[in-house]
Write a structure and sequence with these properties.
The protein has about 625 residues and is of the alpha/beta class. The protein is built from 25 helices and nine strands. The chain has helices at about 5-25, 35-55, 60-90, 95-105, 110-120, 135-155, 160-185, 185-190, 195-210, 215-235, 250-260, 270-295, 305-325, 340-360, 370-375, 385, 415-425, 455-465, 480-485, 500-520, 540-545, 560-565, 570-575, 590, 615-629; strands spanning about 400, 405-410, 430-435, 475, 525-530, 555-560, 585, 595-600, 605. The chain has a six-stranded mixed sheet with strand order 1-3-2-4-5-7, with helices on both faces. The chain has a three-stranded antiparallel sheet with strand order 6-8-9. The longest helix has 30 residues, at about 60-90.
C-alpha cells in the first residue's frame, strides 16, 4: 500500500491525545478516544493488505500473522523485559507478581481480558498497573487473528463485492451492539473485541468504499473529521459511558480524514506530526510506564513535563533501533515459519512473566514481617460472589452462616468485609446476616432508575429490608464522600474543591428519610461514619516501608485532620443529625486512627486490602465497635 502522510499525521493526533490524557486528564478530558482513532487506522491498513492479497489470489494468512508479529512484538517484548528487570529491584513482591501475569498476558495478547476481570480502566488502581495500556494491543491482535480468517473463508463462498457489503453491514450491526453493550455490560464493553471490532471494520469500509471527490471537496471533509475527533477529546470525559454511541465522534472523524486523502494537509502532513506518527507506537508503549512511575513512587506532578519529553525520546529510540529492524516475514514452508525470531521473543517474556507470577513475585525472599502483612491484607472470601455489579433481585442476596437471619448490611462495596466480619461474630450465637451490597452504588433511595445502574436495585432492597420482619438490625455503610462528590484522594494531602449541589442536598434528604424509616421498622440501625482512605494502595505502602527498612508495625496512611476535612460534609451532617435513639453511630477513626494520624497498618495488623476497603482484620476491628454499642 502506498505510504500516506495523512494517516501518519492521524496517528500523531491519536497518540498526542492519549499521552496528554494519561499525564493530566484535565488537559484533554476525552484524550483516551485516541485509541479509537488508532483502531480505525489499523482497520484501514489491515483491510488494504488483506484485500490486495485476495484480489491477486496470493494472500497468505501465515505471512500476514508474521508481518504483524514483526511489527508489534519486538518493541513490546523489550518493554516487558526491561520492566521485569526494573521490577526485580524496585517493585514490591505483590506488585511484581501482578506485573508477571500482566507481562505474560500482554505478550500472549490476552491482557484486555485480564484487565476486564480486574477492574475499570479509569480506577485509581489503574495507575498501579504498568502494562494496562497493552489492552488495546490485545484487542488489535485478536482482530488480526480473526479478521483474515473470516475473509478468507468468505472468499471461498462469495464474491469480493459481497464480502465488501458484508463488512459494511457488519460495521453497522457492530456499532449498534456496542451501544447496547456499553450500557448493559460497561466494563466488558470497554475492553473486549466484540464491542471494538466495528471501529476497525469502519476503517476497512474506508478502504473498500473510497470517496470519489475533487480536490476542493477534500478540505471540508478533512476538517469535519478533525473537528469530530478533537470534539471528542474535549467534550467527552472518563465519566462518559464508553465506547457507546458517542464513540462515533472520533471513529467517524477518523473515517472522514482517511477518506479525504490529503497528503498536503497542514494538519496531518506537517513534518512534526509525521515524525510523531512514525514513532507513535513506541511512544504509546513507553509513555504509560512513566505515568505509572510518577504515581507509584509518589513523585511531584512537576515530573509530568519531563515525563512527556522522555516518552517522546524513548519512542524515537525504540522506533529507530527496534521497530526498524527488518525481520524476515516470507518463508518457503510451514515449518520454516518456526524461524520467526519475534515469536521466541514473545515466548521468552511469557515464560518469564509466568514464572514471576507462579512464584508469587518471589515474595519468599522478603522478610517474614512483610510476608505476614501481605498475607493478612485480604478481602472477604465471598467478595466476588456476594458483591454485585449488575442488578440482582434482593431476595437472592447472600446470607451468612446462622439460620436466624436477623441482621442485614446495606451499602456499596465498602460494606462487604464488614458484613463478613460481623457474620463471623454472629454465627457464634447461630444468628445470621444478609448482605446487600452493590459495587460503586451511590445512595439511591427514592431516585429514578436512570439515576444510576443500581437505583432500581437500591429501592427494591430497601423495600425488601423494611418488609422483612425477621431482620431486626441494619448496618448502613457507604463511601459517603465518594457517593456525594465522586472524588478520589489522588492528590493527597491536597483537597478538592467540592461544591454542595442541589443533587447532593436531595440525596442527603432522601438518605435521612431512609434512616428514619429503618429506625421506625427495626430494633437498631448502625451507621458508619466514613472509613478513612489511604493515599495509595496498602501493598505499596507496605512495600515502601520494607524497601526503606522502616517499621512495619505501624505504617501511616493519612493525617487525621485531612480525613476530617475531606469528609467534613457528611461528618457535619451526622454530628448535627436528630435521628431516633435506636440509630447508633460507629466512628471508624476510633479503630483506625490516633489523635493525629490514620493508619494503613496498626499494631502489625493491615487494616485494608487496597487503598480504601477494609481488610478482614480491619473490618473485625470495626465490627468490634458495633459490639460495644
Amino acid at each position: 500500500m502506498q505510504f500516506r502522510e495523512d494517516i501518519n499525521g492521524l496517528r500523531a493526533i491519536a497518540v498526542i491525545a492519549v499521552v496528554l490524557f494519561h499525564f493530566n486528564s484535565s488537559w484533554m478530558p476525552g484524550g483516551f478516544a485516541g485509541v479509537d482513532v488508532f483502531f480505525v487506522i489499523s482497520g484501514f491498513l489491515m483491510t488494504g493488505i488483506i484485500f490486495k492479497g485476495l484480489e491477486q489470489e496470493k494472500f497468505s494468512i501465515l505471512r500476514f500473522y508474521v508481518a504483524r508479529a514483526n511489527r508489534i512484538i519486538p518493541a513490546l517484548s523489550l518493554l516487558c523485559f526491561i520492566l521485569l528487570i526494573f521490577g526485580w529491584f524496585y517493585i514490591s513482591p505483590i506488585d511484581y507478581e501482578a506485573l508477571g501475569i500482566h507481562a505474560a498476558s500482554s505478550m500472549s495478547f490476552l491482557s484486555n481480558i485480564v484487565y476486564w476481570r480486574e477492574s475499570g480502566y479509569f480506577d485509581v488502581s489503574s495507575h498501579e498497573k504498568w502494562l494496562l495500556h497493552t489492552w488495546s494491543l490485545s484487542v488489535e491482535w485478536q482482530f488480526y487473528i480473526i479478521y483474515p480468517l473470516v475473509l478468507v473463508m468468505l472468499h471461498k463462498l462469495i464474491s469480493l463485492r459481497a464480502i465488501k457489503l458484508t463488512i459494511l453491514i457488519g460495521t453497522i450491526l457492530g456499532f449498534l451492539f456496542c451501544v447496547l453493550a456499553t450500557y448493559k455490560w460497561s466494563e466488558a464493553a470497554y475492553y473486549l473485541l466484540p464491542t471494538r471490532a466495528w471501529e476497525m471494520m469502519i476503517g476497512g469500509v474506508a478502504y473498500l468504499y473510497p470517496f470519489n471527490i475533487k480536490e476542493k471537496q477534500k478540505i471540508p471533509i478533512e476538517w469535519t473529521g478533525i473537528t469530530l475527533i478533537f470534539g471528542s477529546y474535549f467534550l467527552i470525559t472518563k465519566d462518559t459511558p464508553w465506547p457507546g454511541y458517542l464513540a462515533i465522534l472520533p471513529v467517524f472523524g477518523s473515517f472522514l480524514v482517511i477518506q479525504a486523502q490529503r497528503n498536503n494537509s497542514l494538519i496531518t502532513s506537517n513534518i512534526i506530526f509525521n515524525k510523531l506518527g512514525s514513532w507513535s507506537y513506541s511512544i504509546y508503549l513507553w509513555h504509560w510506564l512513566i505515568v505509572v512511575a510518577i504515581s507509584y513512587f509518589s513523585l511531584s506532578r512537576v515530573y509530568i513535563y519531563p515525563g512527556i519529553l522522555i516518552s517522546v525520546l524513548l519512542g524515537f529510540l525504540s522506533y529507530k533501533y527496534v521497530e526498524k529492524i527488518n525481520f524476515r516475514n516470507d518463508y518457503n514452508s510451514l515449518f520454516s515459519y518456526l524461524k520467526c525470531k519475534p515469536l521466541y521473543m514473545g515466548l521468552f517474556i511469557v515464560t518469564l512473566g509466568s514464572v514471576t507470577f507462579i512464584k508469587d513475585g518471589f515474595i519468599y525472599l522478603s522478610s517474614p514481617e512483610y510476608q505476614s502483612l501481605i498475607y493478612n491484607a485480604q478481602s472477604s472470601p465471598f467478595r466476588n460472589k456476594c458483591n454485585i455489579k449488575e442488578y440482582r433481585a434482593p431476595a437472592e442476596s447472600c446470607e451468612y452462616f446462622g439460620r436466624n437471619i436477623s441482621w442485614a448490611t446495606l451499602g456499596d462495596s465498602h460494606s462487604i468485609e464488614i458484613a463478613y466480619a460481623l457474620a463471623e461474630k454472629l454465627k457464634l450465637d447461630n444468628i445470621g446476616l444478609k448482605q446487600f451490597s452493590f459495587s460503586g452504588c451511590r445512595i439511591s433511595y427514592k431516585e429514578a432508575e436512570n439515576f444510576g445502574k443500581c437505583a432500581k436495585w437500591y429501592n427494591e432492597t430497601v423495600d425488601y429490608i423494611l418488609n422483612k420482619d425477621k431482620i431486626k438490625n441494619v448496618v448502613f455503610n457507604h463511601r459517603f464522600t465518594g457517593s456525594f462528590f465522586w472524588g478520589e484522594p489522588i492528590n493527597y494531602p491536597e483537597h478538592s474543591d467540592s461544591k454542595i449541589t442541589d443533587e447532593i442536598v436531595r440525596m442527603t434528604k432522601h438518605m435521612d428519610e431512609l434512616i428514619f424509616k429503618l429506625a421506625l421498622k427495626k430494633d437498631n440501625v448502625y451507621i458508619f461514619y466514613p472509613i478513612p482512605e489511604l493515599q495509595r494502595n496498602i501493598n505499596q505502602l507496605i512495600g515502601v516501608a520494607s524497601r526503606t527498612e522502616s517499621s512495619l508495625v505501624n505504617i501511616l496512611g493519612t493525617d487525621l485532620d485531612w480525613y476530617k476535612e475531606r469528609n467534613k460534609y457528611i461528618i457535619s451532617h451526622f454530628d448535627n443529625s436528630n435521628y431516633p435513639s435506636n440509630v447508633h453511630f460507629i466512628k471508624p477513626q476510633d479503630a483506625f486512627c490516633d489523635e493525629k494520624y490514620c493508619y494503613a497498618v496498626r499494631d502489625s495488623i493491615p487494616l485494608y486490602f487496597d487503598d480504601d476497603h477494609p481488610s478482614i482484620l480491619g473490618a473485625a476491628k470495626l465490627v468490634g465497635l458495633i459490639k460495644e454499642e
